[in-house]
Design brief:
This protein is 45% helix and 10% strand. It is α/β, with parallel strands linked by helices. The chain has three domains: 89 residues, Hemocyanin, N-terminal domain, CATH 1.20.1370; 153 residues, Rossmann fold; 183 residues, NAD(P)-binding Rossmann-like Domain (Rossmann fold). The strands form three sheets. A seven-stranded mixed β-sheet has the order 8-7-6-9-10-11-14, sandwiched between helices. Strands 1-3-2-4-5 form a five-stranded parallel β-sheet, sandwiched between helices. Strand 4, helix 13 and strand 5 form a beta-alpha-beta unit.
């Protein structure tokens, strides 16, 4: 075989399959290696979506897309962009959760980069094995808290791969500049450690000083090898997630999507909800079921947003309440975690149901990773106190959602202003059709990443996250608001990401956090820079 032909057909970034023209087949010696007919990219997309829809299960569709990504990258992204509303639940949540759980069974060939604790002392040299030299975006996990599924170890690689696919599809980040990474420090998942097919280190998780030394060496290697990269921390357990963000957020361009991305997309939902309830955020009370990194991240950003509306920090914090598995977090608890302590209430200890009774929150936010937390009694109770109670069931995947859209609307008699982390179908109520909004972080992180990279921003701030949230909320049409939907349709996500990129960059520039002034035509620069897969 012609070596050039072999290289083309086996390089997913260059391969076009039957899309190679006759002239290209002449030039590269491809005749005989492909069927004689030339196909357009549009035809390939049509045939691919038809093939995908024939797959009986979502996990089979995930495997189909994964295989396509490894064969023909441009076709994969064209398919994903053109059918984003249908394919996002396959590429990411909820299907990616099952893919991670079954990673050992479906693993065929590597797409990401694996760094083991056993590589400690030589990570800088190891990083040079990555083929791409101009890495601008890294999504990294240690696999300890994958979605609401817990410790999946290196099987969590599906998360960085999925997130980076959405960066490219939703915001036009060049796939060649993306690097998915799993840090393997072992797993406390006993079932995985005993599974001969498990691909990671079959030892209990390394913790304490050795863990943080390993992370520090990794960060140093990133800065050395890829100095212009944005690092997104993904699905770390709460204590480590918070500690790593606090340590590194001023050392390099980085953010934690579970803390900051979730906070921004939730805040956007609250801003959009004010168009229905006609109540300002600073006039609301918020009760969180869950007190991990997602809940406290949302609460922290909410407090900053409320201060922008005129409240003091103390007043803003007094409007946010946290409940964990033990009930309302109060000041007289024997043990208060660092991240939850600022929201400890002066009320006595009580259950979630009792907290709703006493606090009468305008909004109930679920971040428990425990399906069914919002019972019929709880939802009916919320509707008793407010004509339009805000119910956010944010846990992923779908099985972990605190309630379904049907339950939220049904038990509140159609009153609920509902959003969720996983997608739910529209629900018919007496007043008409309700369209539940999906508070998907993909509305925020792709545009945030695009804006910070193109503007050469040096750090990500709360002001930038709030600007992104406001931009997203403004993208919701009056017609969607009329249906009770708090987010724009997924088919508009590239336009939404573009708008977020521009406003994030402008916010960073106004704060003096860009390496150079933004050009007058920055919006056009963003448009021109967005990856648009074509032959």
């Amino acid at each position: 075989m012609n070596p050039n032909a072999f290289a083309l057909l086996n390089n997913p970034r260059l391969n076009k399959g039957t899309g190679f023209t006759m002239a290209e087949r002449d030039e590269h010696g491809l005749h005989g290696l492909l069927p004689p007919r030339v196909s357009t990219l549009e035809q390939q997309v049509e045939w691919s979506i038809d093939n995908l829809r024939r797959k009986p299960q979502d996990i089979d569709k995930y495997r189909f897309l994964s295989g396509l990504q490894k064969r023909n990258e441009r076709l994969y992204y064209r398919l994903l962009i053109d059918h984003i509303d249908e394919l996002m639940p396959i590429v990411y949540t909820p299907t990616v959760g099952q893919a991670c759980q079954e990673f050992a069974n479906i693993f065929r060939e590597s797409m990401g980069f694996y760094i083991s604790i056993e590589h400690k002392g030589r990570i800088n040299t190891l990083m040079q094995n990555w083929l791409e030299q101009d890495v601008r975006l890294i999504v990294v996990t240690d696999g300890e808290r994958i979605l609401g599924l817990g410790d999946l170890g290196v099987s969590g690689m599906g998360i960085p791969i999925g997130k980076l696919a959405l960066y490219s599809a939703c915001a036009g980040i060049d796939p060649g500049q993306c690097m998915p990474i799993v840090l393997d420090v072992g797993t406390d998942n006993a079932r995985f450690r005993q599974d001969p097919r498990y691909q990671g280190r079959r030892e209990p998780r390394v913790r304490g000083p050795e863990y943080f030394e390993f992370i520090d060496e990794f960060i140093t290697a990133v800065k050395s090898n890829f100095p212009h990269a944005l690092v997104q921390f993904e699905d770390f357990a709460t204590p480590n997630a918070i500690a790593l963000l606090e340590k590194y957020q001023d050392q390099l361009l980085c953010f934690n999507d579970d803390i900051q991305g979730t906070a921004s997309v939730a805040l956007a939902g609250f801003y959009a909800a004010t168009r229905i309830t006609r109540t300002k955020i600073s006039e609301m009370k918020f009760l969180f079921a869950g007190a991990g990194s997602a809940a406290t991240g949302i609460a922290e950003l909410l407090c900053v947003a409320m201060q922008l509306e005129g409240l003091t920090e103390t007043e803003a914090r007094s409007r946010c309440y946290l409940c964990d598995s033990k009930g309302l977090i109060t000041r007289d608890r024997e043990v208060l975690t660092h991240h939850a302590a600022p929201f400890a209430s002066s009320l006595p200890a009580m259950t979630l149901e009792q907290a709703i009774e006493n606090i009468k929150p305008h909004a109930l936010i679920g971040a428990t990773a425990k399906g069914g937390t919002f019972t019929q009694a709880i939802l009916e109770q919320m509707a008793l106190f407010h004509d339009q109670p805000i119910i956010f069931a944010l846990s992923n995947p779908t099985s972990k959602a605190e309630c379904t859209a049907e339950e939220a609307y049904g038990y509140t008699k159609g009153k609920a202003v509902f959003a969720s982390g996983s997608p739910f179908a529209p629900v018919q109520v007496r007043e008409g059709l309700k369209v539940p909004g999906q508070g998907n972080n993909a509305y925020i992180f792709p545009g945030l990443g695009l804006g910070t990279l193109l503007s050469k921003t040096t750090r990500i701030t709360n002001a930038m996250l709030i600007a992104a949230a406001k931009s997203l909320a403004q993208a919701v049409s009056p017609a969607r608001i009329q249906q009770g939907c708090l987010y724009p349709p997924l088919r508009d996500i590239r336009e939404v990401s573009h708008a977020i990129a521009v406003t994030v960059a402008q916010t960073a520039a106004a704060a003096g956090l860009t390496q150079e002034p933004l050009p007058a035509d920055f919006s056009a620069k963003v448009t021109a820079a967005m990856y648009d897969p074509r032959y």
